[in-house]
Write a structure and sequence with these properties.
The chain is of the alpha+beta class. Helix content is about 35%, strand content about 20%. It has three domains: about 80 residues, Helix Hairpins, CATH 1.10.287; about 110 residues, Sandwich (Immunoglobulin-like), CATH 2.60.40; about 90 residues, Orthogonal Bundle (Cytochrome Bc1 Complex, Chain D, domain 2), CATH 1.10.760. Helix 4 crosses helix 6. The radius of gyration is 28 Å and the shape is elongated. The protein binds copper (II) ion (CU). The site of copper (II) ion has 7 residues, from loops.
Length: about 300
């Protein structure tokens, strides 16, 4: 079926997605056939029983027991098929296998954070092993978001102060889009990521590599994936100012005061973004970044310092 930008959903990437599609097409085609039958019968009767002149009196109509029974029984059977089939798929979609590999997902305006038990954290890429069930335990740091992987036909609200989950088993190695599908503020449409499904060996290698202690600026660069929706690193202004080469610059703020960009100013702007608002920008940065660990914050400061 479709690719990016098509009205069709992408090809199913899991066995369960195939089942969702089969049910969808069953409902779609039975509805289409019944719609066509109703419209055709209506047009036929309109023509056949059109009043010819003022004295035209239609012949009395006898009820047909068989016809009436048919239009009660057939739709009832169809509805029961859709119910049992739909319930079966719903139960399968809602209950992850007990041996599923679990990943914690944290949504925040306007990015995703994927935390693995082994200590790895990623932001724009959700690495998963192919052929193994994966369960995502999801929560939000701020507002309602919704986690959606079109290829896997899984979608679920992500809610503050509560856990929700989805699960899937990728059938083939590849990349699959992740979108936020609950309007969550200015950069909602930029709140995307990718599932990267890799072989069991590649997954183990990736986990091992990610779980090592990284140099602060390298860790910072990874964490910065969360900031990219608003802050460029090439000088282009976005929702927020570009961070290219700002270290040591003198900044002017909306209240007329100024400050030179140093480590303290960078840290303050991350954990308390309303403290100083750059002239020409709106006070729209989410406060949730104060929840980053000290190591991540140190990394971010080191990374921003290193930008030219
Ligand atoms: Cu969102």
């Amino acid at each position: 079926m479709g690719d990016n930008g098509s009205v069709w959903l992408p090809d199913p990437g899991t066995a369960l997605a195939g089942e969702v599609d089969s049910l969808f097409w069953f409902v779609f085609w039975t509805s289409t056939v019944m719609f066509a039958m109703v419209v055709l019968a209506k047009v036929y009767f309109m023509v056949k029983y059109k009043r010819k002149d003022d004295r035209d009196v239609p012949a009395p109509v006898e009820e047909s027991k068989i016809l009436e029974a048919a239009w009660i029984v057939v739709p009832t059977i169809l509805v029961l098929i859709v119910f049992t089939w739909g319930f079966d798929v719903f139960v399968k979609l809602s209950s992850a296998p007990p041996d599923a590999y679990q990943i914690n997902v944290r949504a925040q305006q306007w990015s995703w954070e994927f935390a693995y038990d082994e200590g790895a954290t990623s932001y724009t890429e959700l690495y998963v092993p192919v052929g193994r069930p994966v369960k995502l335990n999801m929560t939000s740091a701020d507002v309602l978001h919704s986690f959606y992987i079109p290829s896997f036909r899984v979608k679920h609200d992500v809610i503050p102060n509560r856990y929700t989950s989805v699960w899937f088993q990728a059938e083939e190695a590849g990349e699959y889009n992740i979108h936020c599908t609950e309007y969550c503020g200015t950069q909602h449409s930029g709140m995307n990521a990718k599932v990267v499904a890799v072989s069991e060996e590649d997954f183990a290698a990736w986990i091992a590599e990610q779980s090592q202690d990284l140099p602060p600026a390298v860790l910072g660069q990874q964490v910065f994936a969360q900031c990219q929706a608003c802050h460029s690193i090439d000088g282009t202004p976005g929702i927020g100012p570009s961070l290219a080469g700002i270290y040591g610059e003198e900044h002017e703020f909306t209240d007329g005061s100024t400050a030179v960009v140093d480590d303290d100013y960078l840290l303050e702007s991350i954990i308390n973004p309303m403290a100083k608002i750059r002239k020409g920008y709106q006070p729209v940065m989410p406060a949730g970044f104060s929840a980053l660990s000290q190591k991540q914050l140190d990394g971010l400061v080191a990374y921003i310092k290193s930008l030219e």
